[in-house]
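Lecture notes, part 5. Sequence design as translation. It can be helpful to think of inverse folding as translation between two languages: the language of shapes and the language of residues. The source text, in structure tokens, appears below.
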């Protein structure tokens, strides 16, 4: 029987996931389809029940369901459990639903695709302490990046993540600006700069180390205000597209036990975005 997959969210029309996964199915000769499903919060439970009845093999979960889906799942991967958020559901052989979170690992895969795996001793500064930052923080720890500092406009939220991690430091934006020179890897995970009109940075990059690694999780635009400013310091740039592609690739691997070609996909989506 043909397998099928979906992404559920509200809104969903803009999602690039269907194109990406369908292209991978084609490339890898998998007889499957992936469709976007517009699911409003009040319909989440019935949507899950329908996905089960209609035999979906798995699906991605996006805003606003990443947390609220958890009570409807039978099992959680430990990382998703820690993060308290799920972006990928796998229907197991016995029909039970297992939730994963591939966002954070997707970020680390994308980072390491650009900078390699030999930078784990670097001091890392994570800017932001929202849902995306939480995923990245746990994944960084899991992958062996142990010198983590989190800064956020609301510093208490950064402190909360550090307490959960059991290691690392939280600091105010001001402190982070002053000590920016010691960080080899700086990751921007806030939604600042997303709004139309005025271009804003989450913090001043005046003291950014020459040759540092600057990563953003936003991929549209590919060069965010943060990356454009960082680029002035001769840094290595990691844009947000790799994270998007790798979170999808890890999900694909959970569903089909094969890792798709991420390089070609990143090239293809880059052409669409520039
Ligand atoms: P996401 O799931 O994308 O991480 P989120 O959980 O709403 O979204 O988190 C948004 C992040 O962007 C937070 O770190 C937030 O800072 P606060 O915790 O202080 O709210 C940050 N953010 C959003 N708008 C901001 C602004 N204008 N200035 C500074 N930080 C901002």
């Amino acid at each position: 029987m043909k397998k099928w997959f979906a992404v559920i969210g509200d809104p969903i029309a803009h999602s690039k996931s269907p194109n990406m996964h369908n292209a991978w199915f084609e490339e890898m000769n998998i007889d499957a389809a992936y469709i976007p499903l517009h699911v409003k919060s009040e319909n989440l439970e019935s949507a899950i029940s329908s996905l089960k009845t209609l035999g979906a093999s798995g699906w991605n979960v996006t805003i606003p369901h990443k947390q609220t889906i958890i009570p409807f799942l039978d099992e959680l991967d430990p990382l998703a459990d820690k993060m308290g958020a799920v972006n990928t559901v796998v229907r197991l052989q016995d029909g039970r639903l297992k939730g994963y979170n591939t966002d954070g690992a997707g970020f680390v895969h994308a980072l390491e695709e650009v900078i390699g795996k030999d930078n784990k001793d670097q001091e890392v500064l994570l800017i932001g302490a929202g849902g995306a930052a939480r995923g990245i923080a746990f994944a960084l720890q899991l992958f062996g990046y142990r010198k983590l500092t989190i800064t956020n406009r609301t510093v208490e939220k950064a402190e909360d993540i550090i307490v959960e991690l059991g290691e690392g430091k939280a600091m105010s934006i001001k402190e982070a600006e002053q000590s920016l020179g010691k960080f080899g890897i700086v990751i921007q995970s806030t939604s600042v700069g997303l709004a139309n009109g005025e271009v804003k940075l989450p913090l001043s990059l005046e003291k950014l180390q020459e040759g540092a690694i600057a990563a953003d999780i936003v991929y549209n635009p590919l060069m965010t205000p943060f990356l454009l400013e960082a680029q002035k310091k001769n840094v290595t740039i990691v844009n947000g597209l790799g994270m998007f592609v790798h979170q999808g690739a890890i999900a694909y691997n959970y569903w089909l036990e094969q890792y798709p070609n991420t390089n070609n996909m990143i090239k293809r989506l880059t052409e669409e975005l520039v």
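The translated text above is only one of many valid answers, since several sequences can fold into similar shapes. The chain has a mean pLDDT of 96.
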